[in-house]
Structures are given as structure tokens and as C-alpha cells.
Amino acid sequence: MITGKITSLHVTDVRFPTSLEQHGSDAMHTDPDYSAAYVVIETDVTDGLKGHGLTFTLGKGTEIVVCAVKALSGHVVGKSLEEIVNDFRHFYRQLTSDSQLRWIGPEKGAVQLAAAAVLNAVWDLWAKKEKKPLWKLLVDMNPQQLVSCIDFRYITDALTEEEALEILQNGKQGQTVREVQMLKSGYPAYTTSCAWLGYPDEQLKKLCSDALKEGWTRFKVKVGADLKDDNRRCELIRGMIGSDNLMMLDANQRWDVNEAITWVKELAKFKPIWIEEPTSPDDILGHATISKAIAPLNIGVATGEQCHNRVMFKQFLQARALQFLQIDSCRLGSVNENLSVLLMAKKFNIPVCPHAGGVGLCELVQHLILFDYISVSGSLDNRMCEYVDHLHEHFKYPVVINDAAYMPPKDPGYSTEMTEESVLKYQFPSGEVWQNLLKESTNV
Ligand SMILES: C[C@H](O)[C@@H](O)CC(=O)C(=O)O
Ligand SMILES: [Mg+2]
């Protein structure tokens, strides 16, 4: 039995100055400071049980998400965990559809990122209470319980509750074998760390050569700002990784639809398997046009890192506008909404290849993709999870990568907890790191 009330919710603006070294740079986001609105919920349970959650941001604007988290806190403080998880669908809807706050969403933008941070903390709390890593909590739940966490509003034309139940019931077959397989070999990953757009060629070469030695076989390359530059960088990387390894391209929304088609045709000679975010993340029909035009080149469209809710994903699937679906643990409304998207992807037979990286996204999304393989898709065909090698040292339970695969976390929770030292040091603007940077900039 789950006892204990949530007594408080704290949120902190934590920023890492990654832009100083161009980590995370792409054709649209040229100077990201990987950041998080970091939430801690406390309970009155005597053992000091706490839940930790976050959502990922790029620096400026984190203060807006922090405000939105504070605006949502009234829905959480005073409730017991038992009350929440016994009717999780209802709680989820309270948060994502607050009758006043929804005007500045609904289910999108800063308010949706804030809902994700809060809900991620609640899921962490639940998993810790059950003394299981989150993926295992999900795997052990029965189909009815899982379905009771999902808000089916707006998606029943694509996936009904009955269909979701059937998928989950079928997923129980062979679950134990797949769990054992994951514990032994892990979930296959690809790396984005070698080819950020702002890295000079020498750095690309060094990072590729190191990654190859570590056993990486799948590489994502940032493109989209300058075609000549893309040709040079892709040639360099294809040369380094050889013809057997996989290459993916990511344009981060830089192009118009026709421009995307022309550009991808030019880069097709490097044999990428997908082009990610070729155009506006909201342009579902544009993605469908691009998908159709580049299908003869054996290149698919991947998208999702800025797809803010299940309704968008539903339409992408219905319009056949993506061939690789990229869930995000912090963009969608936490585990609840990710569950609905994983189930829709299964129904439409589209592989899920999660977006990760940022700060904490690898830590979180590994739980979701493990659950997807063990209990939903049951397949590794055309599937892999993104990995980026930054900022893991700030987490209490950092990801473990073994031979280019995510090894299932064993610690209870959602791997969301940051070290207290890092939170203090990188808190914006009062943390030591930012105070020093601000001093330096005023001295120049
Ligand atoms: C701004 C982020 O680093 C973005 O480039 C990440 C991304 O597109 C990806 O990991 O994929
Ligand atoms: Mg991307």
C-alpha cells in the first residue's frame, strides 16, 4: 500500500554552459546551453522519500518553464501518491488541461514542458516507492493498469482503449525472455556526439575514430546550414566510418519542404538511412510530401523531438509522414503520454527510435525504450536509441553504455536525480559556475 502525502514541490533553473564548446550545436540551435527545469517533490514519508523530475531546455526560457511548474504545483502538493496513481488518467488530465492554464498551451509549449517535469518527478517517486527502476515498474504492471494511465482523448480515431489493451496483452508473450536479453546485452544505441555542427573537422575525425574504437556502429551527423559544408562533412564521416556502418542526418527544421527534398537528394550519395526534422516540426503534410519524395532513395523521415503531444504523433502516423518515430521523455507529457505514442507506433508498425542527449534525456528515455521492446514492440528491427556523451556525471544514477548499448538501470526510480553539488553549482544565475562566467564577461 502506498502511503504518504506530497508536502512540497521545489523547482530549480539549472544550466550548463555547453555553448562555450559548441556541444549540441545544430543548424538552428547554434549556441545551446543544455539546461533543465529540475523538480523535487517531497513527501511526509518518514524515510525521506522524494521524487525527482526534469524537462530539457536550451538556456534562455528555462525561467519561463520554472514559472509554469510553479503554476502547476497546486495540483500536486497535498495529494498522496496513492490518490494520484489510483486514477492517474484523471491526475494527468488535471495537469495537462487545467481550465485556465490550458489557454497558454494546450498540451504544447512551456506549459507542456512543465507538466512533463512534474509528472516525471511523480513517476520517479512511484518507482522509488515500489523499489524498482521505472522500466521494470512498467513491465510488471498489468495491461489494465497501464491503460489507466493514458488519456485517450483526441486519439480514439487511431487507437482505442480496447486496442491498447490487446497490444499490451499480446506484449506479455515472450516478455521474460526479452527482459533477460536486455539485462544481458542492452538496448542498441547510436551516437550523436561525434558530429555537432559547430565542431571543426579535426575534432570530428578524432571523435569518430574514438567512437569506432569504443564499438559504435551508428552515427548521426548534423546538416542543413550550408550544402557545400554538409557535403564535406558527410564525406569525411562516411570515409571514417566505412560503408557498413549506419549514418543518419539531422537538419533540425532548417528547410522548406522543396528545399529539403533537393538537399536530401544531393546528400543521398552518402547513404543516410534517415533525414531528421527536415522542416517545421508542425508541418505534418510537409513531412508526408518529403517522405514520399525521398522513399525511392531508401531514406526515411525521422521526427519527434519537438512533437509536443500524442495528437501530433497520431496525425504523423495517419499521414504516413514519418518512417522513424522519435519519442522524447520531456517534450511529451511524461510516461503517460509516451505510453500512448508507443502503442500508436506499434499499431501503425512504425519503429520508435527515441530522441535523447540534452541533459538527462538519455537517463530518462532508456526506461521507455526498454519497456517498448520488452512489452510493446517486441522487435529491434530498424530500432535504436540516441546517445550523447555529455553531462551524465551530474546524475546520481548515470546511464551505463556497454558496447554501444544501453544497459538496463537497476537502481529504483526514473534515473532523474541530479547530484546536489551539481544543482548548487550550475543553478542559474546564482551558482558558482554562472557567477564566474558573469564576472568574466563583465571584466572583458
Ligand atoms: C539543440 C540540440 O542539441 C539538438 O541539436 C539535439 C538534436 O537534434 C538531436 O539530438 O537529435
Ligand atoms: Mg534531432
TrEMBL record:
Pfam families for the chain: MR_MLE_C, MR_MLE_N
GO biological process terms held by the UniProt record: carbohydrate catabolic process
InterPro entries (UniProt xref): Enolase-like_C_sf, Enolase-like_N, Enolase_C-like, L-fuconate_dehydratase, Mandelate_racemase_C, Mandelate_racemase_N_dom, RHMD-like
Keywords for the protein's UniProt record, in alphabetical order: Lyase, Magnesium, Metal-binding
Top-level lineage group: Eukaryota
CDD domains from the UniProt entry: rTSbeta_L-fuconate_dehydratase (cd03324)
Gene Ontology molecular function: any one: L-fuconate dehydratase activity
Reaction it catalyzes: L-fuconate = 2-dehydro-3-deoxy-L-fuconate + H2O
SUPFAM superfamilies in alphabetical order: Enolase C-terminal domain-like, Enolase N-terminal domain-like
UniProt EC number: 4.2.1.68
Residues in Mandelate racemase/muconate lactonizing enzyme C-terminal domain copies: 201-297
Cofactor(s) this protein cannot do without: Mg(2+)
Sequence similarity: Belongs to the mandelate racemase/muconate lactonizing enzyme family. ENOSF1 subfamily.
This protein's name: Mitochondrial enolase superfamily member 1
